[in-house]
Amino acid sequence: MKETVGITALVPPELIYACGKRPMDVNNLVPESSLSPGSKLCAWTAIWRDMILNGGLDIDSLVVVAGGDCHNALVDGQKVELNGMSTHYFFYPFDRDTDYLRSQLEKLTRFLGGIKDEKMFSLISDLKSKGRALDELRVNDRARASDVFSALISFSDLCRNPDVFEKTLNNVPETDVEYSSRIALIGVPPIYPDFHETAESFGLHVVYDELPYEFLRLGGSDLDSLARSYSEYSFAGSIKNRVELIKDELQRRRVDGVIHYTQFACHHTLEDEIFREYLDYPILTVQGDLPRPSSEQLKLRLEAFSEMLEVMP
Amino acid sequence: MNIGLDVGSTTAKVVHMEDSEVIFSKVVPSHRWIELINDGQDDRNIVSTGYFRKRVPRFAAITEITTASLGARYHDPDVQVIVDIGGQDTKVIDLRSNTFVINDKCSAGTGAFLELAAHYFDIPVGSLGELHSRATKGAQINNTCGVFAISEMISQLVGGFSMEEVIYGLHQAFAMRIAQMVPPANTVMLIGGTVQNTGIVDSVKNVLDSKIEVPGAPQLVNALGAALYMERLDDSG
Ligand code: SF4
Questions:
Q1: Tally of domains in chain B
Q2: How far is residue A222's CA from residue A23's CA, in Å, rounded to a whole number?
Q3: How far is A101 from chain B (nearest CA, A)?
Q4: Are residues A214 and A270 in the same domain?
Q5: Is A196 found in the same domain as A305?
Q6: Averaged over A111-139, what is the pLDDT?
Q7: Are B64 and B7 in contact (CB under 8 A)?
């Protein structure tokens, strides 16, 4: 059985597989969790931390993404390490410095025991092409956003098994989608397990999921190309670059309105004003805390936003 | 005839319109909303809105964000920002950018906060405006959290301020809380039942630089917007 490496955010999954291990994005179980963590800021990190501490996540080691991403994860990751978990800290550069990222990838490779299976790079690259095709399918109104989202969000760890994951991708149903407005969902992914379904129920077709798109956009076939590509990871770098990337996607995907999801106690919440200033679209900001099915408050906002985009000139 | 039915958390309102003119309106406590619908009345000309919009007979249900936008524009086509102060939440709608924010996490800046204060003084909430107007100065209330503002209010009473001055201070704190949600604008329209409290309107005028408008029947704007929406549906056949 391959060793399982927990990851707290985007860590090049092709590298983990190439090192003969399998990644498990510890966030993926959070939306379905009913845990109410004791000490918490952001519920994402607090819940995976408690799940690991309680033995509820079957991982052999943990890679914590800290630099350029999340300090809550850095602290909660250390709590897990203090409890005896073999833990590695991975830092993205803020300034897209590829040499720096290459040195980080080298350290990570050593932690993972070295590259053993180079063909995983091309195998995963092929799957990412499939993912991008799926993404285009919903842009062209040929697949439901909720189906596509659950496939794309899994690209961080490819469901721990690329062969099984490929079948999942092949099984995403193709269907004509009817809707009233096209929506971009920016920010960290919603912690609600049914966000896309709820949005769909109000006629909102999500044609862009910002973070999952990063999973598809970045890749590589060796340390050099990984360093070049992943140094562009938009969430880790300057907001200016991120805004430019988002703007291009909003235009390309013919978006009518933007939903900015923010997580309680997450520093990304502070970016809301920047998006409101630089993105010339109607923006709805929603904030979540604990993972629960969509609340009435959230439904009211989505319904009102949908009406606003449809009824108002 | 087009009917707008707004069943909110505390009151229910109905507006009947014909040829874009209001011909009838009525307000009752929410749990008596049934009195607003005549026996045998046809649901096919009712648009409902408010908290209980999907629990009442209707042809269509729309949110208060849309009804407020339509209703406020009926009163002033050029209004830029709407502040709808409801019983349980406050909504701020910027019509220039089609965006809105809803405060439903904290009672400060909602009707519930004033209910709490009136309850403490054992006076009807409707008398707060009159008491406010009798004060020549206000007690300073800094807290924007509803619960803490009430304890601060009690401290100010202990410190010698009169009930009128404390109410004035509360309204001021209320307006500050609202102001945090309002973007810079030339014209801001206040709507919702709470706005019948002239103390609130005074305080908002003190705090915001914008021109503040209050329509004739601020509590009916959402029902009016719902009736206008029904009219639109009618026109589009
Ligand atoms: S939502 Fe924000 S605080 Fe929470 S894990 Fe993600 S980046 Fe960190």
A1: 2
A2: 18
A3: 39
A4: yes
A5: yes
A6: 97
A7: no
Strand order in the sheet with B2-7: B21-29, B11-18, B2-7, B46-49, B60-61
Residues of chain B with pLDDT under 50: none
Domain assignment present for A121: no
Q: Are residues A181 and A268 in the same domain?
A: yes
CB contact under 8 A, B66 and A311: yes
Count the Cβ atoms, other than its own, within 10 Å of residue A111: 18
Centroid of ligand 1 to alpha carbon of A175 (angstroms): 34
- If asked whether residues A246 and A293 sit together in one domain, one would say yes
Most distant pair of Cα atoms in chain A: their distance: 59
Ligand 1 interacting residues, C-beta cut-off 6 A: A 42, 44-45, 70, 72-73, 188, 263, 266, 268
Same domain, A53 and A195: no
Yes or no, beta carbons of B69 and A312 under 8 Å apart? yes
Question: Which of A263, A267, A269, A286 for a ligand 1 pocket mutation test, highest count of atoms within 8 Å of Cβ?
Answer: A263
As a three-state string, the secondary structure of A190-232 is CCCCCHHHHHHHCCEEEEEEHHHHHHHHCCCCCHHHHHHHHCC
The distance from CA A304 to its chain's CA centroid, rounded to whole angstroms, is 26
- Mean pLDDT along residues A277-298: 94
Nearest to B66 among A276, A283, A308 (CB): A308
Residues whose CB falls within 8 Å of the CB of residue B26, separated by 6 or more in sequence, listed in order = B13, B14, B35, B36
Q: A290 and A220 in one domain?
A: yes
Domain that holds residue A103: 4-111
ipTM above 0.90, yes or no: no
Q: Of the residues A59, A81, A111, which one is the last residue of a structural domain?
A: A111
| Shortest Cα–Cα distance, B98 to chain A (Å) | 6
Residues in chain B, total: 237
* Chain A residues closer than 8 Å to B97 by CB: 282-283
- The pLDDT score that the predictor gives to residue A99 is 98
In which residue are the tokens 């709590």 written? Answer: A79
| Model confidence, pTM | 0.92
Residues B19 and B123 in one domain: no
| Smallest CA separation from ligand 1 atom 4, residue | A42
pLDDT digits (tens, 9 = 90+) for B185-203: 999 999 999 999 999 999 9
The CATH number linked to B22 is: 3.30.420.40
Between the alpha carbon of residue B48 and those of residues A63, B16, B37, B190, the distances in Å are: 52, 12, 12, 21
Distance A245 CA to ligand 1 centre (A): 20
Q: Which of A282, A283, A307 sits opposite B66 (nearest CB)?
A: A307
Q: Is the pLDDT of residue A313 over 60?
A: no
For B103, the domain range is 78-214
Residue A124 forms part of a structural domain: no
Of the residues A65, A85, A111, which one is the last residue of a structural domain?
Answer: A111
Phi, psi of B209 (to 5 degrees): -85, -10
Q: Per residue in A174-216, pLDDT tens? A: 999 999 999 999 999 999 999 999 999 999 999 999 999 999 9
